[in-house]
Amino acid sequence: MNRFHLCALAIILTGVFAGCSSTPVAPVETATTTPSPATSATTGTLGASGSVASSSVTTVALAPHLDPSSQISKERSVYFDYDGFSIKSEYAVLIERQGRYLRSQPTLTVKIEGNADERGSAEYNLALGQKRAEAVLKALEIYGAKDTQMEAISWGRERPKATGHDEAAWAQNRRVDLVYPRQ
After folding, report:
1. In which domain, by residue range, is 54 found?
2. Rounded distance, CA 134 to CA 111, Å?
3. Nearest-CA neighbor of 107 among 7, 22, 181, 21?
4. The whole model's pTM is what?
5. Do 129 and 53 share a domain, yes or no?
6. Which residues face 45 on adjacent strands?
7. Domains in the chain, number
8. Are both 40 and 107 inside the same structural domain?
9. How far apart are CA 65 and CA 181, in angstroms?
10. CA torsion angle for 182, 67, 142, 90 (degrees, to 10)?
């Protein structure tokens, strides 16, 4: 009986290993298609059989606030002088661009987040960050952004961009960031 079990096991294993053999897969024949020069979304690739297989690629356009190469996405921070909340003239183009963009997207919302450097009390920095955020909000309204699209908040000194304790770091932390939803 022992010999019978060994023979049965050998037959079963032979069948299993034979089923797992690596036989080459025959190439699938595809219809020969020549890409049209007028259709930029269709590209031809040479298949294993030497025929040209076609594929369509759909181009998806990202909204400017989601596209990392867009100016709307790249330029979202306004920096301020020490202890101040007046918007510098160098940020006029950024404010205009963002305001007009919000006007063109009436369902889009943005958080206007005011920040301060580490100097001063927590209460003072929260108030200063809020004044900075509200200054940017009012400037965006000039270019057509609606009050209902924007929310001005302050982080005070709680969200520094730079962690140093010198003027270079403080200058990066005295800012307002425009934060759009990620969808």
Report:
1. 29-59
2. 11
3. 181
4. 0.67
5. no
6. 53
7. 2
8. no
9. 9
10. 120
